[in-house]
Amino acid sequence: TEFVATAIGAVNAQTALSMSEDASASVSGSVGTHKVCTNAASVTFQLPAGATAGQRCKATFTNALTSNVIDPGAEKLFGVAGTRTVNARNASVEFTYVNATIGWVYA
Q: I need a labelling partner for 58 at 20 to 30 A (CA). Which of 8, 86, 92, 97 fits?
């Protein structure tokens, strides 16, 4: 069981997202990061461009609004171009990149 616990710890360390806070109204995500968006007003979170299959990023909105926006930029989000509004207060959303046809999906 110690071997299994060590192996699980190693996998978790490889897949952990690096967390940082950002108080801007426009936050750029990057692969492998978890951005905690702390702006009191609505925030637009832009997903990273040029991702490869399996790469992840995450955004947490701490402003208790239902008007925060996810912007896939040049990529797609769920196979469709264009932004999406996060209709939940204090939401935390994690995305995984699939391919150029589908783009980003929930992790």
A: 8
Give pLDDT tens digits for 17-57. 999 999 999 999 999 999 999 999 999 999 999 999 999 99
Q: Evaluate whether 29 touches 46 at the Cβ level (below 8 Å).
A: yes
- How is 49-88 classified by DSSP, letter by letter? SS--TT-EEEEEE-S--S-EEEE-TTS-BTTB-S-EEE-S
Q: Report DSSP state, residue 48.
A: P
Would you give the end-to-end CA distance of the chain in angstroms?
28
Residue 40, token pair as written in the block: 């009191």
Tokens for 71, please give them. Answer: 């912007």
Q: How far is CA 91 from the centre of its chain?
A: 11
- Indicate the helix (H) or strand (E) that contains 24: none
Query: Which pair of tokens denotes residue 15?
Result: 């897949």
Return d(Cα 74, Cα 48) in angstroms, integer: 9
- How far is Cα 59 from Cα 82, in angstroms, rounded to an integer? 18
> Any bridge partners for residue 80, and if so which?
77
